[in-house]
Write a structure and sequence with these properties.
Chain B: Belongs to the complex I subunit 6 family. The structure holds two protein chains of two kinds. By secondary structure, chain A is mainly alpha-helical. Chain A has three helices and no strands. The N and C termini of chain A lie far apart (51 Å). Chain B is built from seven helices and no strands. In chain B, helix 1 packs antiparallel against helix 2 and helix 2 runs antiparallel to helix 3. The longest helix of chain B has 24 residues. The radius of gyration of chain B is 24 Å and the shape is extended. The relative contact order of chain B is 0.06. The mean pLDDT of chain B is 88. Classes of the chains: A mainly alpha, B mainly alpha.
Chain lengths: 101, 185
């Protein structure tokens, strides 16, 4: 277990999530990609705490914030999906590429 | 032992993460994402972050179950009955993801990371608890306000016709203005 190994794992999770967020058509699947990217941040935050600065809680707090971001992102994402689905019967991004309300 | 567990969990997290976007069933994708999160939480447990690891396990299990419900609501290709492509823009996205990963790895390997400063606490849970209830309390306050704002905003966004639509901007209508009469009057 080294810092490099943990960070490379975090980078891999981030890149996979980025791929998902860019390729998926369904808004719900895009949110899964974003969650996977934040998952990488979780791993990196924990690794920095353990390998660089374990004497203070800063690394743990980054993880705490990232976990909160994940939950809030999902809640807002589903609310936006519900709103656009209700207004225009749209659940894929290709149908929502204009700015018309 | 720690090394073996790290690599098993790391490969598990990445493989299930890739699997999320290979599945043509969104329900299966949800549970693969859960598996990826659980592997990530396992990595945090390996680092001695017992509290945060368990929070992620519990939270993500609940979150993915909720997500599965939404998946069923907004599912493409429900029950495999409507086969269709769920992806677009695949080649540029692959290039962007690979370039990002390569760039990050290069940065990770080339950066001279600092040596560990200070000793690990006996109890990491105690450490984070004392931080958020002491010097870092502002963070906890901001998180609390953000959660409250999200709760309000998501309800506002998801509500179809609220009381202001039914009873007017000043809530002064005696009878609600509904397209179809019904509900409580």
């Amino acid at each position: 277990m080294t810092l490099d190994a943990f960070l490379i794992l975090a980078a891999a999770l981030f890149a996979v999530g980025l791929y998902g967020a860019l390729t998926q058509q369904s808004i719900v699947m895009i949110m899964m990609g974003l969650e996977l990217m934040v998952n990488g941040v979780l791993v990196a935050g924990g690794a920095f705490w353990y390998f660089v600065a374990p004497a203070t809680a800063d690394g743990q707090l980054v993880v705490l914030v990232a976990v909160t971001v994940m939950a809030l992102e999902m809640a807002m994402g589903f609310a936006a999906t519900t709103a656009i689905f209700r207004a225009r019967d749209v659940d894929v991004t290709d149908d929502a590429e204009d700015l018309k309300g | 032992m720690g090394d073996a567990a790290f690599w098993i969990l790391a490969v598990g997290a990445v493989v299930t993460g890739i699997g999320v976007f290979q599945m043509d069933s969104m329900a299966r994708a949800t549970f693969l994402l859960l598996a990826s999160f659980l592997c990530g939480a396992g990595e945090l447990l390996l680092l001695g972050l017992g509290y945060l690891g368990m929070v992620i396990v519990l939270m993500m299990t609940m979150e993915m179950v909720v997500m599965a419900v939404f998946m069923v609501m907004y599912m493409m290709n429900p029950a495999g009955l409507m086969p269709m492509t769920m992806v677009h823009n695949q080649r540029p996205a692959t290039v962007i993801a690979v370039v990002t990963f390569a760039g990050l790895v290069a940065g990770i390997l080339l950066t001279p990371w600092p040596e560990r400063k200070g000793a690990r606490p006996m109890d990491s849970t105690m450490q984070v608890g004392e931080a958020i209830m002491g010097p870092q309390m502002l963070l906890m306050i901001v998180i609390g306000v953000a959660i409250l704002a999200t709760m309000i905003a998501s309800v506002v966004l998801a509500t179809d016709r609220g009381r202001y639509d039914r009873y007017g901007d000043r809530l002064e209508r005696r009878r609600p203005d509904d397209p179809i009469p019904g509900g409580r009057r």
